[in-house]
Amino acid sequence: MWSDSAGGGFNTSFGGDNGAGYGTQQFASPGPEAKRQNRRIESVLPLTIQTVLGLDENNQEYLGTPVNMVTVMGLIQEVNVTSTKVTYTLNDTTGTICAIKWLDSETEEEPLMENTYCQVHGTFKTHQGNKQLLALHLEPITDLNWITAHMLEVVYTALQLQRIKTEASDSGLGKGALAGSSDGMSNSMVGFGGLAGPGMPGGDMGGSGSGGYSLMGLTAQQKMVFEVIRSIVDDSENTGYSREHIKAKLKGKVTPQQVDNVLFFLSSEGHVYTTVDEDHFRATDG
Amino acid sequence: MVSNASEPSMRVNGALLPMYTGQKVVLVGTVAQVDPSGSSLMVKASDGKMVMVTLPNPLQGVIEVHGVGQGQKVMCQSYITFPQMQADKFDAALYDEALKLIQSVRDNPWKPDM
């Protein structure tokens, strides 16, 4: 869903054995001037520790994408437990970094042991000149296949970001380039969701905003109904189209019953909303 | 790693060992033979008797060896086992492809910066 609601969040579902990936959601504010500041990209980037150490503390960027949350997987070499936090020294064959997990007074958790693999999701910060990870979630790995998965995700992320970077600079932010990479993004989100943070330097979802609204995921019928609602003209009172009007417009293409079902679906998904009464609809235009 | 380290244990040899069934013992000897399964070994006790020792973390299943390469051999410095993982659950073919990928793909993050 490409909407410009500001509630950033990431769907984290961890399960070492059931193979559930970690989904990410990207919220971008479309519009003609989607500058970096307006965008709240909250993606979790799988990186190697070497890459994390190479991040510049003032301008945290990786291949043109602002870095917020990262995930690394490494071997715990040292565990240092204090009353307020646990400091793990992680090594993933490319480098070593400290990951700090602050302890709540409520949660009684046992720190992980040395010489075990673990996966850390967290943010990158610099403390007194040392680069560290602030661990938000730390979990031991019991299945080596996760390491395979992480290896692949890191490479995939790097290559995908590379591609977007060169596409954006080559084609000059054409809608085609963005659409192409958007499709790539949505595929990756469906796949294992390691990344959803394309660098969109000034890119927008179509010049006027309405043209670029993504209709992915809607059936043909839903798209037709949606288009009817969206293409309203002369709606000075902002009442939108009535249900009967929509049915009349789609007579022969969509049955009235189906129109009702579609309207119900669209309004529960948030694509349309009701205005003066339950039978008048307007589109929530992206 | 010993959970009840505070409790005292008795030093024994092969002959005295049966007297302390269920109790903590300390056995010193030389390694006579390592069982192929990796879960036990034969130790020659100080009185010459052979004692079978079973290991808590058997050397079996999926293992990750860290060490120094020496031609066709690896001089191991440390190793990690995944005891909760059955050997056949590990997708070796996929891992093999993945590591070939990280070796070959140009400019990927797994390559050390020179």
TrEMBL record, chain A:
InterPro entries: NA-bd_OB-fold (IPR012340), RFA2-like (IPR040260), RPA_C (IPR014892), WH-like_DNA-bd_sf (IPR036388), WH_DNA-bd_sf (IPR036390). One of its GO terms (cellular component) is chromosome, telomeric region. Residues 191-279 form the Replication protein A C-terminal domain. It is found in: Nucleus. One of its GO terms (biological process) is double-strand break repair via homologous recombination. It comes from the Eukaryota. One of its GO terms (molecular function) is single-stranded DNA binding. Residues 13-22 have a biased composition (Gly residues). Residues 13-38 are annotated as: Disordered. Keywords: DNA-binding, Nucleus. Its main location: nucleus. Belongs to the replication factor A protein 2 family. This is Replication protein A C-terminal domain-containing protein. It comes from Scylla paramamosain (Mud crab).
TrEMBL record, chain B:
GO terms for biological process: base-excision repair; DNA replication; double-strand break repair via homologous recombination; mismatch repair; nucleotide-excision repair. GO terms for molecular function: damaged DNA binding; single-stranded DNA binding. Keywords: Nucleus. GO terms for cellular component: DNA replication factor A complex; site of double-strand break. It is found in: Nucleus. InterPro entries: NA-bd_OB-fold (IPR012340), Rfa2 (IPR013970). SUPFAM superfamilies: Nucleic acid-binding proteins (SSF50249). It comes from the Eukaryota. Its main location: nucleus. Belongs to the replication factor A protein 3 family. This is Replication protein A3. It comes from Scylla paramamosain (Mud crab).
